[in-house]
Write a structure and sequence with these properties.
36% strand; alpha+beta; 35% helix; 5 strands; 3 helices
């Protein structure tokens, strides 16, 4: 009987010992709650910040830029849509008063209803930065 008791104690003590630490995959589950916030920050940094920066630059250019007439040379869709409105890339021949003309490109979000008013060959009013003529914004 004593030997049976000794075997029982020996077996139970080895089976009740704490097992080895959990595998690393289970350890990663502790940090699973971080996945959503990290993805959100990445999306904001990659997509929202550039759009906001471009919008701020356009507002400043429209407020402080020099006015000129420009002929629309070409229009291309960029593949970006903001509030279901397409963003397009305009190629423009800008004709400032008292200065030589130049070619520039600018991006703008246009309403589908406004599309007939901004076609290649048409003239529109733009604002540009005299210090950097590559910065142009169309006045809509």
């Amino acid at each position: 009987m004593t030997s049976l008791l000794a075997v029982d104690r020996a077996l139970s003590s080895t089976w009740l010992k704490p097992s080895s630490p959990m595998p690393e995959a289970f350890d990663l589950l502790r940090y699973a709650w971080l996945i959503g916030p990290v993805i959100t920050v990445v999306v904001i940094v990659l997509f929202v910040v550039p759009l906001m920066r471009r919008s701020a630059q356009r507002r400043q250019l429209l407020a402080t830029g020099t006015r000129a007439q420009a002929r629309i040379v070409s229009i291309q869709e960029t593949g970006v849509r903001i509030n279901e409105q397409p963003e397009v890339l305009f190629t423009l021949d800008v004709q400032p008063d008292g200065r030589p003309g130049f070619r520039a490109q600018c991006r703008a979000t246009i309403s589908v209803l406004m599309a007939p008013r901004v076609q290649p060959g048409m003239t529109t009013t733009v604002r540009y930065d005299p210090q950097d003529p590559t910065k142009v914004a169309i006045e809509f």
